[in-house]
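Field reference: sequence -> structure
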Amino acid sequence: MAAPKKGRSAGAQSRPGRSLALILIAIVALTGGMFLSGHTTPRLGIDLAGGTSITLRAEAEPGQESAINKTNMDTAVEIMERRVNGLGVSEAEVQTQGDKNIIVNIPKGTNSKEARDQVGTTAKLYFRPVIATEAAGAAATTSPSPSASSSATDKATDKATPSSSPSVTGTPSASATSQGRAVTDALKADPTGSASPGSSASPSASASGAADTGKLEAQYAALDCTDKTARAKAGDGAKPAEPTVACGQSTPGQWQKYILGPAEVDGTDVAEAEAAFATTTGAGWTVNMKFTGEGRKKFGEITGKLAQNQPPQNQFAIVLDNEVVSDPRVSQALTGGNAEISGNFDQESAQSLANMLSYGALPLSFSEDSVTTVTAALGGEQLKAGLIAGAIGLALVILYLVAYYRGLSLVAIASLLVSAALTYVIMSLLGPAIGFALNLPAVCGAIVAIGITADSFIVYFERVRDEIREGRSLRPAVERAWPRARRTILVSDFVSFLAAAVLFVVTVGKVQGFAFTLGLTTVLDVVVVFLFTKPLLTLLARTKFFASGHPWSGLDPTRLGAKPPLRRTRRPAGPVDPKEA
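Structure field:
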């Protein structure tokens, strides 16, 4: 029974190269992925790079606490991202933390007050009739939108189909003057039918209306939807009951500009909206809307008026925060209380539109929990201080290892370098992958991890030394010490990881950076000890320098007070007593 066990042990000792090759391949693959992704350094948090960090807490209306859920919070994040991007901010981060918090990190160089005003307000969703539209940067042109059909029976769903072409319809204009006259005529036509050119009005009202029309014409002519700043300011100050101008993205990279009539349906009139795949009709991905009782009446009236007009005045624009997110057209009144928007949707775009429609009806508001502003200079100083602290801690650990373990410290130093390389590469990859940003608490977590990693090496080295003190040679000592050291290391790292996980779950904000880094480095400690430290020590145990117990190897049996090998001894046979013979 002993011989097979010895054979398995020998086999295990003879293949440490496999583990070393595995971790080497992992390092090369991760490093290659880092360079291919173009992110060769970790993303820095606001406290290190400089900027503004805003923590928002979601609040629900009384009795509607269930509205604070993952779907609605993700939708809020999407809308806040649209708002921040509308300010022309690059590399801004908007992400959820916990169940009720949203963190908005805005880099330096941005008007933080304007950003706070944008992200902290509740989204405003309206359905407005389209009066005129054209592709941004082009003359006004129009083309027919796909047709829409209403329900054939009371149980069927009403439909409104979004435009499929980048340019919505309009008649080409020969000059800016003729374009202005076309816009004026469209405004006078009033696609909602609420007022006609022949209706009676007082002279003062007529003069006021003419002035408003002229102002709107000027805004429309000057609007450049290819400019981020212009898009963000389009329609500023316009009330729901007033016509306005707006921008919308008809296809990725292609912008439209619009003149829109007064809001006829409010976002709160939408009871719910969801994306669905229409298998029976073959329409593909669609967005199904269900209106409230009041919304059903409003939507039926507006679609009935729009259905009598020619394109583009038979379209209604779904406007979120003064940006057109969809512009479907209708061919008849939709009075059933349900509507289906179909067209060139894929799953992602259908779900995005459904989320935006739903958000207009959510009883959610957000309050500021905290706002932190850090200058770039202060952030650089904090990063420098953190790196200096880490370097000092690492130097002290290395000095201790060299002084106490001598040659054996080479294994620990090499393991620390491998762990540092894996940590750096993974942090660099996690930036674009999950939005991880290295902040000051995360740097602290990495510094604490140096001690945790070194502690694992020390546990193993002391187990090996204990075996040598018992009189065993180095190679058997390395293998016999591993099972006991492995159990201790796993228990210790499990406790550390559990503490990091609990801290990550129960905290919000920058403290999570500390917890995440601590948990990541704890997992990497296990990987490095199992795949690098143990195999490397197994290989070194075969070298003459370590196997012979050189005084500078750190494994000198004499210095360790090793016992002599245990062997059975027999009492020497004395002379035979003649009497006994």
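Note: Residues 575 and 581 are 11 Å apart (CA to CA).
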